[in-house]
Design brief:
Helix 2 packs antiparallel against helix 7. The longest helix has 77 residues. The protein has a five-stranded mixed beta sheet with strand order 3-2-1-4-5, sandwiched between helices. The protein starts with a helix and ends with a helix. It has 287 residues and is α/β, with parallel strands linked by helices. It has two domains: 63 residues, Orthogonal Bundle (Helix Hairpins), CATH 1.10.287; 213 residues, Pyruvate Kinase, Chain: A, domain 1 (3-Layer(aba) Sandwich), CATH 3.40.1380.10. The chain is elongated. The protein has seven helices and five strands. It is a peripheral membrane protein. Produces ATP from ADP in the presence of a proton gradient across the membrane. The gamma chain is believed to be important in regulating ATPase activity and the flow of protons through the CF(0) complex. Keywords: ATP synthesis, CF(1), Coiled coil, Hydrogen ion transport, Ion transport, Membrane, Transport.
């Protein structure tokens, strides 16, 4: 009887674990779908911004050294970096944040400024040498209805801080869905800004000055890139947790079935034993 009670408790515990795992699985699946929808809805805008910015940037008329002078005021001997890092606020994604922390600790210079998305990542970084470099912290999970507005406000703040703090480099660090790690260098402008030597294009048909267009478009390009990177990071996170929960649900179901089979075997053995005892008792009385 004691074995039956113990197995019965394990069955109840496993049923609770299964319900929790299924709930987390559903939440991750729902949020994953929502973030993907937001990214798809904004894909045309993102593509348009990227196309225009790259088109003007790679124009014959554009000189990246001139556009740099509008954003980069840092002396050559004082090259402060400004890093934006996107982490995870989800449970069961500790490794997600740990990989970013390890990269930051090993690569971030001895001085500079850091903007952190994610309270859990912020707490991890606060226990390292980088804690004094963090100048702002935002949650990585935002209200999806207000996310575009919030990112727009943050982008304006980033550019203001970048200029007033005399920063030289502006980098965006996050884990995306297409590859395990992304490190985008957004400032200063360079000859190989898009990963390879720029192919120069004629842009006179636009009847605008390419250098001025790059200067005007960069804040929009930065905002679109930051929003897209945050969405990409969220998709990667929720996809990871959904996979973890899928495995947890399968494991819980298998264990629950094992306990149920074991319960039935013990129960059947107990019933058989009780029947045998009753039969034996009746035989004794008959004799």
């Amino acid at each position: 009887m004691s074995n039956l009670i113990a197995i019965s408790r394990k069955i109840k515990d496993m049923q609770s674990i299964l319900k929790i795992s299924e709930a987390l699985q559903l939440i991750s699946s729902t949020k994953l779908k929502s973030y993907k929808q937001i990214m798809v809805q904004g894909s045309d805008y993102q593509s348009g911004v990227n196309f225009l910015f790259e088109k003007f940037y790679t124009s014959y008329e554009h000189d990246y050294r001139i556009t740099n002078s509008k954003f980069v005021f840092s002396p050559k001997k004082q090259k402060y970096p400004f890093w934006i890092v996107i982490g995870s606020d989800l449970s069961l994604c500790g490794r997600f944040n740990r990989q970013i922390v390890d990269f930051m600790v090993s690569k971030f210079p001895s001085n500079g400024f850091i903007l952190v998305f994610g309270k859990k990542l912020f707490n991890l970084l606060s226990s390292t040498r980088l804690k004094n470099f963090i100048i702002a912290n935002y949650p990585s999970e935002m209200n999806q209805a207000d996310i575009s507005k919030k990112i727009s406000e943050i982008t304006k703040w980033v550019l203001k801080e970048y200029v007033t703090r005399n920063c030289y480099t502006l980098q965006l660090i996050f884990k995306g869905s297409d590859r395990p790690f992304n490190n985008l260098r957004l400032l200063p402008f360079t000859s190989d800004y898009f990963g390879k030597k720029n192919i120069k294009y004629e842009t006179h048909e636009y009847r605008v000055r390419s250098t001025e267009s790059v200067i005007e478009l960069f804040p929009i390009y930065l905002e679109a890139t930051l929003l897209n990177s945050l969405l990409d990071s969220k998709i990667a996170e929720h996809n990871l947790r959904r996979e973890i929960m899928n495995n947890a649900v399968k494991a819980a179901e298998e264990k629950l079935n094992e306990y149920k089979i074991l319960y039935q075997k013990i129960r059947q053995a107990t019933i058989t034993q009780e029947i045998s005892q009753i039969t034996a008792a009746l035989k004794c009385k008959t004799n």
